[in-house]
Specification:
Layout lengths: L8 H22 L5 H4 L1 E7 L6 H10 L3 E8 L3 E8 L5 H12 L4 E8 L5 H25 L3 H29 L5 H32 L3 H33 L5 H37 L1
Antiparallel strand pairs: 1-3, 1-4, 2-3
Helix pairs in contact: 1-6, 3-4, 5-6, 6-7, 6-9, 7-8, 7-9, 8-9
Length: 292
């Protein structure tokens, strides 16, 4: 049975518009919470006798007025602490807090100020790379589907996902102290590829149905969505379950990375049938009306 998915396309557009407005508000109000990879900071390595809870140590350091970017265990006897903003002369305070948490002597083996790993030039090149990749994807999808409309709709859906992910992280940074780092950039690029991949699956089914049976674009799109929806959801759920396990069990160092991937996966699953396809259908229907 073919379901009329596009009956609610105005609702889909309204939901997307709401998320975009929220993202714009977050970015204009608070900006992106850039981490040590973008701003620089300091990092210290400490040798311990026993393993400790990284979450407890972060909580104690933040109570002491330190801005902690991450705490990472190195082997069985050392930890690496990365500070977003470190005040000179407080290295002894850090050692004392670690002693308080561990109840043992602590040895500082290394401490140094670090510059940003991602410079302005690298950020600029990243923008260029995304623009070039988007252009190539647009041209390739347009060529494969013999329509420029397919390419533009796929790219708009892709940027829809990435922009909302960036906007939501401005909210997470303001309310939950999340930070944008190398791992977030990795999650963002993964979201771009996942979004386009899922969209092409639906578009390919639309092309097949149009070749075999023809008909109005809305009817073809509804049939394509009906035939691919279960596959798309099942595929996404396998990823979502894994990411939920990482968020709740993986530790604080990768929690926001997994959260970014989770948001990107959900957005990609949503945008392919409910943004990319409605954009395609609306565009073709408007083109037909204009030609009349």
């Amino acid at each position: 049975m073919i379901r009329n998915w596009l009956k609610y396309k105005l609702l889909y557009f309204a939901l997307s518009a709401l998320m975009i407005v929220i993202s714009i508000y977050g970015l204009t109000s608070w900006g992106l919470p850039l981490g040590i990879d973008f701003k620089g900071g300091a990092e210290g390595e400490y040798r311990l006798k026993n393993q400790i809870s990284n979450e407890l140590l972060i909580a104690k350091l933040e109570e002491g007025g330190f801005e902690v970017s991450a705490v990472q265990s190195i082997g069985d006897s050392s930890i690496l602490i990365r500070f977003s903003n470190f005040v000179e002369g407080r290295k002894l305070d850090v050692i004392n807090i670690i002693k308080e948490v561990t109840g043992e002597e602590v040895e500082e083996t290394r401490f140094e100020n670090v510059g940003p790993s991602i410079g302005r030039e690298l950020v600029k090149k990243t923008y260029y790379a995304i623009a070039i990749a988007a252009g190539l994807i647009l041209l390739w999808v347009a060529y494969q589907f013999k329509s420029f409309v397919f390419g533009v709709s796929a790219i708009l859906a892709m940027f829809h996902d990435s922009f909302i992910l960036i906007g939501f992280f401005s909210l997470f940074g303001h309310f939950y102290d999340a930070e944008v780092d190398f791992l977030f950039v990795t999650a963002l690029l993964t979201t771009l590829s996942f979004s386009v991949h899922d969209t092409i699956v639906v578009y390919d089914r639309i092309r097949e149905i149009r070749k075999k049976h023809g008909g109005e674009i809305q009817k073809i799109a509804n049939q394509a969505l009906t035939e691919t929806m279960r596959r798309s959801i099942n595929n996404s759920l396998t990823i979502i379950f894994m990411l939920l396990a990482l968020i709740f069990l993986g530790g604080i160092t990768i929690r926001w990375f997994a959260a970014a991937l989770l948001i990107g996966t959900v957005l990609g699953t949503y945008s392919s049938p409910f943004v990319a396809v409605p954009l395609l259908v609306t565009w073709e229907e408007l083109s037909r009306i204009i030609k009349k």
